[in-house]
Amino acid sequence: MSAPSLEEGAAPPAIEVRGVTHRYDPKSAAAALGPVDLVVTPGEFVVVVGASGCGKSTLLRLVAGFETASEGSVLVHGDEPRPGRAGLVFQQPRLFPWRTVGGNIDLALATASVPAEQRTARREDLLSQVGLREVSQRRTWQLSGGQQQRVAIARALAVPSDLLLLDEPFAALDALTRERLQEDLRASSTRTGGTSVFVTHSVDEAVFLGTRIIVLTSAPGRIALDVPVPLPREGADPAEVRGLPEFAALRAEVGAHLRSVAA
Ligand SMILES: Nc1ncnc2c1ncn2[C@@H]1O[C@H](COP(=O)(O)OP(=O)(O)OP(=O)(O)O)[C@@H](O)[C@H]1O
């Protein structure tokens, strides 16, 4: 028996967006997004930036399986996207306020069919990752905004998924908490090697978090810039990364593109 060729054995892309245009109103000529072509390799951390209303959330919703493209196709690891396939984090944490912090994580673990006997250890591990073990018994409404967002991130990580979709998850946070969560997310995505797509309005955040940055044009969003981020990740000190000349150069390049597509 001959060995499979590389071509046959090659894993499909994490995300494959081909010729996608999306209209929320099928009768309207106005598209919310597209046409867009985008292929994301497993392990990439893609950050999407662009003017308000250009279709960033629409792109995430198509990949999450909440919307079906009006034209073109979207595949996630070679399959049709379906809700529940990817971990999701939104700007508002959307927690269950009547449950404790630990209870929110437990629910996610149960929904993800993690065996009951493994849930406690997994919950404690996730809460440690986001620095919330000491507040496990509190109700979520007793937490600060930053803590609530960390619960939402732990909950997204509770669902074993190789794909994380994040829609402006840090937008409502104070600067210090935002920086701390950016550092946690950068480190955890480097450690786990999962694929992430992250939407933000902050160019700084895009350059710090991403391994690749996509700038969309104004509505309907098309890809105006698609650049790799040439910054160290594994074991890199966040302050040093932010101070590198390459960081400043890319921030200037992405900022200039954003201004030119908004003009
Ligand atoms: N559920 C919906 N029904 C109808 N139109 C929608 C819906 N969601 C978004 N739109 C429209 O689609 C376009 C793109 O919206 P989208 O939320 O994807 O943009 P965005 O880039 O994420 O914006 P922002 O940066 O302001 O969050 C906008 O014109 C918006 O009004």
TrEMBL record:
UniProt keywords, alphabetically: ATP-binding, Nucleotide-binding, Transport
Q: Which domain of life is it from?
A: Bacteria
SMART domains xref list: AAA
Q: Where is the ABC transporter domain?
A: 15-243
Q: Which Gene3D superfamilies did the record assign?
A: P-loop containing nucleotide triphosphate hydrolases (3.40.50.300)
Could you cite one Gene Ontology molecular function of this protein? Answer: ATP hydrolysis activity
Instruction: Supply the InterPro entries for this chain.
Output: AAA+_ATPase (IPR003593), ABC_transporter-like_ATP-bd (IPR003439), ABC_transporter-like_CS (IPR017871), ABC_transporter_ATP-bind (IPR050166), P-loop_NTPase (IPR027417)
> Per its UniProt record, what Pfam families does this chain match?
ABC_tran
Q: What is this protein called?
A: Aliphatic sulfonate ABC transporter (ATP-binding protein)
> From which lineage does this chain's organism come?
Bacteria, Bacillati, Actinomycetota, Actinomycetes, Micrococcales
Q: Which gene encodes it?
A: ssuB
